[in-house]
Design a protein that fits this description.
alpha+beta, six-stranded mixed sheet, three-stranded antiparallel sheet, 19% strand, elongated
Length: 413
């Protein structure tokens, strides 16, 4: 992404901010793993969205006083001895060129700089990214800072910028969509590699190794989420990630996987036969799910309530299941389909954005109907990534093989 993108997003945020306010955001740190080991660092996505920077321990500070906006970025100061172990820190010139922020200072000076600003100027509001998915989540830098700020400067009102940034993030620019297309294309290559190498008797993680190789060989070492390689009855567990069972003959393999491109995610599900040939029963169920996928995608356009999509999916699945005698009453569908059909997609796999919204041009969402019949050790889900356009939609993953005939033809080669 070019720095102009991040400059524009900061401008939108400052326009939203009230006058005599400041914004403080943190890039995050790697959580402790065990002993002296740390988990892999993952940048706070909203911080990245405003800066283009993906290094730990950075702070963004924006002030808006009497209509005048000033931006500051605080980075870690280089330590020659520590850098022999951990590598170079983000330097000021690189930070400037990537983010478009010209005033670069050191994190160690943040509190002194902030205190000086608070002493000299009458700030009334402080905007923080107070994301809170679960009630009992561990506190992060933003929540800790909010508590400290309230204690030391109780006259300043804390405001949560998370929901406004989330609203911005739901509408993708053309550059964002291009990165998602790259991630989807790479994901398709990984799925094709698994189909090409699948055979009964493999362990699920051996099949995943072919996916991992494709991603890593392309320079994308991070999956968008933990890969789901679920054979047989494992396909009926929605977020199965053990990937450690032997793949049986005549079983299906459900693969729910995604690559990234500059942190923009793909989320694709395909289901294929381990031995390359669907049984007649598997074809029957598969095509019901495929019809539901196509029916739901066809319903996507601006102005459609997000919740309407799952209604379309359930109607299609119900008709198909009744047709083959799997169910007799609409209420029975919940035995075999028990999740929503869609979520937003972007910098996170389950991306930000409310579910009580109507679709707008620029939104990207998944469509993922499924049927899960545990008694038959059968789980089938199909998932595409779809962009809402001005006139309807564009299936960004339309080129990934999907029909029974396409899959069998490919695997036979």
């Amino acid at each position: 992404m070019k720095k102009e993108f991040f400059i524009e997003k900061r401008m939108q945020v400052t326009e939203y901010m009230k006058d005599d306010s400041m914004l403080v955001m943190f890039s995050g740190t790697a959580p402790h793993k065990t002993a002296d080991a740390m988990h892999h660092y993952i940048p706070n996505r909203s911080f990245f969205y405003l800066t283009g920077l993906d290094k730990p321990n950075l702070i963004l500070l924006i002030s808006k006083l009497k209509g005048e906006v000033k931006e500051y970025l605080f980075v870690e100061k280089g330590d020659p001895m520590l850098e022999k172990w951990e590598g170079k820190k983000l330097d000021a010139d690189t930070a400037k060129s990537l983010s478009g922020i010209s005033d670069i200072q050191f994190v160690n000076d943040f509190h002194n700089s902030l205190n000086g600003m608070l002493y000299r100027s009458d700030f009334k509001n402080a905007y923080l990214n107070l994301e809170q998915l679960r009630w009992n989540m561990a506190s992060d830098a933003a929540h800790d800072f909010a508590e400290e700020l309230k204690k030391r400067h109780p006259y300043i009102k804390i405001k949560n910028i998370f929901h406004y940034i989330s609203e911005l993030r739901t509408i993708k620019s053309s550059d964002e969509v291009e990165h998602m297309k790259k991630a989807i294309e790479l994901t398709g290559e990984g799925i094709a590699a698994m189909m090409k190498n699948a055979k009964p008797g493999m362990v699920e993680y051996q099949l995943q190794a072919h996916l991992d190789y494709v991603f890593t060989n392309a320079g994308e070492r991070e999956h968008a989420f933990g890969a789901i390689i679920a054979s047989g009855i494992n396909g009926a567990t929605l977020h199965y990630e053990d990937n450690n069972c032997v793949i049986e003959d005549n079983s299906l393999v459900l693969t729910d996987v995604g690559a990234q491109s500059e942190y923009y995610c793909a989320d694709i599900t395909r289901t294929f036969p381990a031995n390359g040939r669907f049984t007649e029963r598997q074809k029957e169920i598969y095509n019901i799910v495929l019809d539901a996928l196509n029916d739901t995608i066809a319903a996507i356009k601006p102005g459609v309530p997000f919740a309407e999509l799952n209604i379309v999916t359930k109607k299609s699945l119900t008709e198909g299941c009744k047709r083959i005698g799997l169910i007799q009453d609409d209420s029975e569908l919940s035995k075999y389909y028990y999740h929503g059909v869609s979520h937003f997609l972007g910098l996170d796999t389950h991306d930000v954005g409310g579910r009580d919204v109507t679709l707008r041009s620029g939104m990207v969402l998944t469509v993922e109907p499924g049927l899960y019949i545990e008694a038959e050790k059968l789980g089938i889900r199909l998932e595409d990534d779809v962009l809402v356009t001005d006139t309807g939609n564009e299936n960004l993953s339309k080129n990934l093989i999907k029909t029974v005939e396409e899959i069998e033809a490919f695997m036979s080669r």
